[in-house]
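Blackboard transcription, Thursday session:
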Amino acid sequence: MDTHFEPKIIAFCCNWCAYAGADLAGVSRIQYPPNVRIIRLMCSGSVDPLKVVKALYYGADGVLVLGCHIGDCHYQTGNHYAQKRIAVLKRLLGYLGIDPRRVRIDWISASEGDKFAQTAKEFTEEIKKLGQLSLEGKFS
Amino acid sequence: MIEEVRRLAKKWLESRKVDAIVGLRENNGYVAPYLFTETGELERLVISSHTSDIIPRYSMFSKSQRYKKNILYLLEKKYPKAKIGVVARGCDEKTLIELAKRDQLELEKIAILAVACTKEDAIDCRCPTPYPTRIDVGERVEGVSSDMNVEALLKKNLEERFSFWKHELSKCIKCYGCRNVCPSCFCEDCKMEQDLWAQMGQLPPEIPMFHLIRWYHVADRCIECGECEQTCPVDIPLLTIFKLLRKDIKDMFDYEAGSDAKQESPLLTTLDETPLKE
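(Written on the board underneath:)
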């Protein structure tokens, strides 16, 4: 049996910086792992922590939350909230026995196509090491 | 102790310091919140206690499944000019502060008749602060600082925690008791009732989604009263997580729910106001 494990990764990207950064990575033909599935949102501040957990519950092995750098948010302070919420969520996941390293928040500006590719690569490697999550099967 | 509470309540009613007093009334061995307006009724005023054989425990802030607002909110809406006295223990006082912060109550319209808990009650509740900031009746006793469940959970590794919660949460019968009794829950549109987040009527619930909704949502306003855990018919140790999260929020943002009515919750402010310390 083939035991090769390809993780599923959901990346919540904000419309103004991270998604544009991902776009730039594509336009510049920078290679990054195909495991990352992008979901575009208006702001990282609209990433409800429950969305992150729902993604994990329905089969994602890791979740990236990507937004503008602090101070550059299109809505002034959306990413401030995102940072605080994800910090609390990571602690909570740790107590429940889900590795908090499966959730990562990072800042990528519209001009940082290479940083997006780099983040995607590093995170995919990390999740590959952590292995499959499959909460739905494990819990019920 | 209860005599003293009744005497003080009577004094407040007679001197028109308050128009009415909200407290628990005993009726044939059951208790429920009641609006005392006559001094004659006060002999049935009781304080909910865990260690008493006669008085069952009851949270003054319990809500019905249908109206997700507590009794003080409803009273304030109905009688906007009235000044209401509230018989409050340490946890009730924290609740009032936390609710006022979130525009559910106005503290100016409330007079708190503050009662300190006894040592036995504090031990039974595993309560770290069994006293209000200002005490009208009772003696201040020190609370319990360590919690068995919390320590046991922290000793486990990730795998063990996972299987522990899998076992505990699969017992859930989705009675919504934890939410209905929680003094800090007041949303009219509750995510626990929306199919988007957790399927209605599905048993066992989607673990850990269903419980995580409340754990996360109440994280910055939990005042550690322990009502959720006490009310749970299948004994899920919900308070364990809340205690840990409350400590984390104190470490990360220097914030304790229910302590200062002026301090805004860190999850509602920007990084400039409450920076993250991690």
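Lecturer's comment: The beta strands of chain B are 20-27, 30-36, 45-46, 84-88, 110-114.
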